[in-house]
Amino acid sequence: MVAGLFAQPAEYKLTPEEYVEKYKEDAVKEMLLHGVPASITLAQGMLESGNGNSALAVYANNHFGIKCHAEWTGSTYIQDDDESNECFRKYNSVLESYSDHSAFLISRERYDFLFDLQVSDYKGWAQGLKAAGYATDPFYANRLIEIIERHSLNELDKMSMVPVSKKDDPKKISHSPKVSSKSSLSVKLNNERKFVIAREGDTYVKIAKEMELSAKSLYKYNDRGMDDVLRKGDIVYIQPKKKRAQSEKVHVSKTGETMHSISQKYAIRLKFLYKWNKMEPGTVIKPGQKIKLRK
């Protein structure tokens, strides 16, 4: 992508330091909501947009060079890239561009493995983005790492850490402050993944709105489809679940449990739960069956 390589508009140019100061809160917010390291978001934004000075950034608020693609129904901005007159997404604000950047990574399966990395592993994320084909530049990962280290952006990633006392149960601990000040939902932590508990009358769309997420993201995070209905007491993850359990190795299934309910209990993505147990998706389990929670 690297939109910053395009001709720059004549307006005042932001310095790298000004860019970081101006957008670091948005990057941290996206990290807390979606699990993308703030250092990576900022470094990509700086590289792709020429520190927010590219024509695409100034006139379309697009800081990541994301093209329209078939699913895009919003405003567009036409600009030459690999080919002439290519279609790029146009946003109402820079924050909207940051949010769509997170959604872009989450919605494409080729980036799934990145969310199994620690948020602090900016080198792994940078190398993974290049390996997954985010950009054609052979030095893309090195450029991101250089930007992160030059401006100490990895210090922002430490804000993703939630302090947990050894005496606390990580499945019950509350996270404060809440992800969104507009929400009355209490955010909790399980397997280092943030979740809320559904209330009477809640829907995925309602919770998504309160948490300032897209409903599409919530469905994906919780391995659910648009036809699935929430019940009071259901766990709703507000960031992607992990690939495996943190400490537990095996779960003995109880009456009424399903592979999905176990995946929610331990914050493990359903497809990996099936994979660790060599099961086909949709397999019905029996009470007393041992379910592996990691490779």
Report a brief summary of the structure.
The protein is mainly alpha-helical. The chain is 36% helix and 8% strand. A hairpin with a 2-residue loop joins strand 3 and strand 4.
Strands ordered across the widest β-sheet = 3-4-5
Q: Indicate the multimeric state.
A: single chain
Query: Which spans of ≥5 residues are poorly predicted at pLDDT below 50?
Result: 2-8, 162-181
Number of strands: 7
Largest sheet: 3 strands, antiparallel
Give the overall shape, derived from the CA principal axes: elongated
Radius of gyration: 20 Å
**CATH class division of the domain at 3-160:** Mainly Alpha
Percent of residues in helical segments? 25-40%
Content of β-strand? 5-15%
How would you characterize the overall build of this protein?
With 295 residues, the chain is mainly alpha-helical. Among the domains are: 3-160, Lysozyme, CATH 1.10.530; 250-292, LysM domain (Membrane-bound Lytic Murein Transglycosylase D, Chain A). Helices cover 36% and strands 8% of the residues. The strands form 3 sheets. It has a 3-stranded antiparallel sheet with strand order 3-4-5. The chain has a two-stranded antiparallel ribbon with strand order 1-2. Strand 1 (76-79) and strand 2 form a beta hairpin. Helix 1 (16-34) crosses helix 2 (38-49). The longest helix is centred in the N-terminal third of the chain and has 19 residues, at 16-34. The protein is elongated and about 65 Å long.
